[in-house]
Amino acid sequence: MKKGLALLLVIVMSLSALVGCKNNAANDTAKENTKDGQNVTNAPGDQSAGDAEDTITVLLPPVSPTYQDYFDEWTKGFHDQYPNLTLKIEAASWEDVTQKLDVQVQAGSPPDIAFVGAGTIAKYIDTGLLLDISNIATSDMLNDFDQNILNYYRNGDGLYGMPAYAEVHGIGGNREMLEAAGVDWKKVQKEGWTFEEFREAIKAGVIKDGNTVKTYGFVFACSGVAAADYLNIFVKNAGMPDPFTKDLKYAYTSQNFLKLLEDMRTLIDDGSMPKELSSIDAGKRWNMFLTGQTMITGKGLSVFERSAKLNNDKIDAKDGSAVEGSIKADYIILPVPTFLGNKMQAAGAIDGYVMFRGKEEPTSEHLSNVAKAMYYLASGKIAAVTCNDLYISPVCETGRQAMANVEQPEGKNENNTEAAQLLASQISEARTDITPELGAAAQKISDEVMVPKFQALLANEITPKEMYDAVKAAAIEAFGKDGVVVD
């Protein structure tokens, strides 16, 4: 009997030890899955901790030429990585995406994730629906990005997005036409050019058949909201790299702004740009470049070199899908001219993914899932594929590592590569000191006054002074007389 009791005691003690080991292992696993207080991956089978089924909605434009072609593959890949999560992507065109998002935000039902430019986050912060992700995303996620680029999504103490890329917005020209007009484009790429030099160059680029213009010197897409691109890109080289000075005074009440408007109108009056510029959209301006109707086009992107090359290949192959009436064209990256003796200041386009909430308070588990989806889209292979498609380098370490396994484009113009790198080095620092309130007010002036007035200026319906006065009046109303530049 004593032997039986002893055996029973041994068995009980063994079972207790086994249970203890399992509990310790579970605790160790939970610790490993937590970094800086953020739950990274949940314990298996713990539905309440984040393994419950969840759907993340996303609104995305055609970020690169083939970007939207990958949506099915990326959706499947995300579900394979997180079997309990579903990525539901809605595609939109560049022309529609901003309007669609704004309508959804105003209705209080935005997608979980949207693709927006860093420069527009202030107006969404003002709605109360854009979320600060600094305490939602893990530190591992955020530390993957180049911090100077990530900072473009900071506003005040908050962080409101993950960057997909950093691109330079500029202009670009047809190599053969530039050389025929006497433009030393290699020198311009390295040293830049003044407005006066640019003005004479595009005059020389105009080709006429009698009184009919066959080729303009310069065309920029200005239909609808695209007019803001033209103005925002050029204003940086007129001594106003941001809407606010370092002492937070609204900059576009400066006399430099009036002079810039006068110069921009002059390019149309010279006959170097079409009189109907305000009606030319992005598609038409690119068609005009490929068909030889303009020597220089804008806005210009690195990827346009690839787009032109693909069309050239189709022409050589007598492929019917080449743009109708197009000619072979080598795309040359060019800087925007400088105004009034100011230095070159490239317009940086830092675009990426932001997180929204709806009218109802989202659960912490859902927010954690949305962060996973944001990082999935902004990093690693997707970042590499996207940036490679755009002829630029990723802005996160995992993207650069993945780039080694992505097939690189052939025949890339090294002069363009060097020019793009030089321009990228001239992108101004992120202005995290501009408060959400100031940013939203400036965006409102841009949307409601600056863009419509600029389109009217391009259409010759108002004068540069009338536009300047309208912007100045709106600025004083928004910021007060002491809150604007007076010179």
Descriptive overview:
- Residues 29-51 are annotated as: Disordered.
- Residues 36-45 have a biased composition (Polar residues).
- This is Multiple sugar transport system substrate-binding protein.
- A hairpin with a 2-residue loop joins β9 and β10.
- The chain has 2 domains: 52-166 and 349-420, D-Maltodextrin-Binding Protein, domain 2, CATH 3.40.190.10; 168-348 and 430-483, D-Maltodextrin-Binding Protein, domain 2, CATH 3.40.190.
- Strands 3, 4, 5, 8, 9, 10, 11, 12 and 13 form a 9-stranded mixed beta sheet that branches. The protein has a two-stranded antiparallel sheet with strand order 1-2. The protein has a two-stranded antiparallel sheet with strand order 6-7.
- 46% of the residues lie in helices and 15% in strands.
- Mean pLDDT is 89; it is low at 5-49.
- The protein contains 19 helices and 13 strands.
- It is globular, with a radius of gyration of 27 Å.
- It is of the alpha+beta class and 487 residues long.
Low-confidence stretches: 5-49
Integer count of domains: 2
Q: Report the end-to-end length measured between terminal Cα atoms.
A: 105 Å
What is the percentage of strand-forming residues? 5-15%
CATH superfamily of the largest domain: Periplasmic binding protein-like II
Summed up, the helix count is: 19
Fraction of residues in helices? 40-55%
User: Can you tell me the CATH class of the largest domain?
Assistant: Alpha Beta
Q: What Rg, in angstroms, do the CA atoms define? A: 27 Å
Overall 3D form:
globular
Average predicted local confidence, pLDDT: 89
The major sheet is characterized as: 9 strands, mixed
In the CATH hierarchy, the architecture of the largest domain is: 3-Layer(aba) Sandwich
Pairing-aware structural class of the strands and helices? alpha+beta
Provide the CATH topology of the largest domain. Answer: D-Maltodextrin-Binding Protein, domain 2
- Please report the total strand number as a whole number: 13
